[in-house]
Amino acid sequence: MKVIVDGLAAEYEDHGTGNTVLMLHGWGDTLHTFDSLAGMLPGRVVRVDLPGFGGSDSPKSTWTLDDYVRFVRSFSEKIGIKPDILIGHSLGGRILIKGLSTGVLEARKAVLIASAGVAERNTFRNATIGLLAKVGRVVTAIPPFNFLRDGIRRYVYQRIGSDYFAAGSLRATFLNIIKEDLSSAAKTIIVPALIVWGENDATTPLSEGKRLHVLIRTSVLRVIPHAGHFVHQEELREVSGIIREFTV
After folding, report:
1. What pLDDT band is residue 217 in, cutting at 50, 70 and 90?
2. pTM of the predicted model as reported, rounded to 2 decimal places
3. Angle of helix 122-139 relative to helix 171-178, nearest 10 degrees?
4. Measuring CA to CA, how many Å separate 76 from each of 5, 30, 67, 157, 206?
5. Of 16, 90, 140, 244, which one's alpha carbon is 20 to 30 angstroms from that of 176?
6. Which domain covers residue 56, as residue numbers?
7. How open is the CA angle 47-40-106, to the nearest 5 degrees?
């Protein structure tokens, strides 16, 4: 289904009846990351492609995390829902942390799956990414390096584990998103929060999940053995059971 939200066409799925669950995917992903999980949750389950991903329009300007938070609020208002449960994976978790901390988003409970934004290494790592982005633009504009531009930049950003190169037209938005430390925001969350993490997550390591658990005093942390960043797909039955038990 499509709906126009603040001038952007947004793709979404809406199934079931009862208490409303709103699910937000991660960076570079789509609502389909939750295809299997959504079918195992009770109530009305709503999933949306965030702007720039899947079937939704890209932002018309460079966005910040606050812009994504406002989009989720506007989307909810546009389709007439007041979510009881908010579920976010990775970037989706970032959005929920910021939105719940500011009161722009509200819910009875929240589920954060491998949520990014509170890594202690973020300041140095993200500053490095930003610096390399600037240096790369300058160096690869000089002959004979200019014809190697894409290859050089792809190699550099893969080496530092960044999605920057793959972000395409959203690169500036990507930099805005990752440079924001949500540690202070996480401390202000008062709704019950379930934190689900894969033991072997290489994208957002378990240490970040443990840190998030300490910051959100109302949280419980469930670690899924041997699972990675897409723990909700890798261990579907276990994760769905944990969420159902938590959201009763």
Report:
1. very high
2. 0.86
3. 160
4. 9, 17, 14, 35, 31
5. 140
6. 2-118+181-247
7. 45
